[in-house]
Automatic annotation (TrEMBL):
GO terms for cellular component: cytosol. Residues 18-311 form the NADP-dependent oxidoreductase domain. This is Aldo/keto reductase. Transmembrane segments: none annotated. It comes from Amycolatopsis decaplanina DSM 44594. InterPro entries: AKR_Detox_Biosynth, NAD(P)_OxRdtase_dom_sf, NADP_OxRdtase_dom. The lineage of its organism: Bacteria, Bacillati, Actinomycetota, Actinomycetes, Pseudonocardiales. Gene3D superfamilies: NADP-dependent oxidoreductase domain. It comes from the Bacteria.
């Protein structure tokens, strides 16, 4: 990864791909997570993304163990998230000031550090006034426990409201918006991308490989064992349809023409979209991560990029497109 990018308007300088840790503590054990971390750093990466709910806290504990075992704190831009609450397997949001600050303290304890570089509110909480949520951000930054803050999974209007309200105060402006974004999920282009651009928020795409579908591993069917999984149906199933299949075919065709993998093509496309700072690449195994990083410096020729743009073009209309 030869280049670096600025996240927001502050001094957060990050690599063009971040390392996601959502599998750590579930399908990825500590030894494999350590191998992934070493591989990522060796490739020139520095953006490490986690959350308090990943692996029920184990992802943060893994990072804390790595820091305790010699991983240099200043070698990574460390980001975590708070606000998501899992009850009986179902996600809820609690973005109240008290809960957020308590959750941040718990995250710092698991991480084994006194601060994170970027603290993100994991979900919008309709029960809590946005000003109360922003108060928690101001308190965290003033105390030195977070250097910058951002939002995650906010809609366009939610992103705009949070960013404008924060900018109207004397507090530090929001730095980022983390959202799902890939060739299979371009919905953020309607409202989130314009809102983020207007308020100078850097976009951090999660699931840049379309929840695994853009790897082309499901082109010829889904293994029976996976197809019967409730999680697979919920998480991956939404991208297994005729439209997605057509996009994957074009991705595979472009990859063949360029002599690279579909993974490299899909990641290069989203990395270079307007407003994007760093797609977050997660993997169950080190081999999967190596495949993602292998094409980190791929630059898509314009003719191929335009083909991908066209086949994945999202529906746009009123009011996004003016009359």
């Amino acid at each position: 990864m030869k280049e670096s990018r600025r996240l927001g308007e502050g001094d957060l300088i990050v690599s063009p791909f971040g390392l996601g840790t959502s599998t750590w503590g579930t399908t990825t054990d500590f030894d494999v997570a350590t191998s992934q971390m070493s591989t990522y750093l060796a490739a020139g990466g520095n953006l490490l993304d986690t959350a308090d709910v990943y692996g029920d806290g184990h992802a943060e504990r893994f990072i804390g163990r790595m820091l305790g075992a010699g991983l240099m704190r200043d070698s990574v831009v460390l980001t975590t998230k708070s606000a998501a609450v899992i009850v009986d397997g179902k996600p809820f949001a609690d973005a109240s000031r008290g809960y957020l600050l308590s959750a941040l303290d718990a995250s710092l304890s698991r991480l084994g550090t006194d601060h994170v570089d970027l603290w993100q509110v994991h979900a919008w909480d309709r029960k809590v006034p946005i000003d109360e949520t922003l108060e928690a951000i101001d308190t965290a930054i003033a105390s030195g426990k977070a250097r910058f803050a951002g939002v995650c999974n906010y809609s366009g209007w939610q992103t705009a409201v949070a960013a404008v309200r924060q900018a109207s105060k004397n507090g530090r402006p929001l730095a980022s918006a983390q959202v799902e974004y890939s060739l299979l999920e371009r919905g953020i282009e309607r409202e989130v991308v314009p809102a983020a651009k207007h308020q100078s928020l850097g976009i951090l795409p999660w699931a840049p490989l379309g929840r695994g579908v853009l790897t082309a591993k499901y082109r010829h069917g889904v293994p029976e064992k996976r197809a019967g999984s409730r999680f697979f149906k919920w998480y991956v199933g939404r991208h297994l349809n005729d439209r997605a299949a057509g996009i994957v075919e074009v991705v595979a065709s472009v990859a063949d023409e360029l002599g690279v993998t579909p993974v490299s093509v899909a990641l290069a496309w989203v990395r270079d979209r307007p407003g994007v700072v760093a797609p977050l690449v997660g993997a169950r195994t080190t081999e999967q991560l190596e495949e993602s990083l292998a094409g980190a410096d791929l630059c898509l020729p314009e003719e191929h990029r335009l083909r991908l743009d066209e086949v994945s073009k999202p529906r746009r209309g009123y009011p996004e497109v003016s009359i």
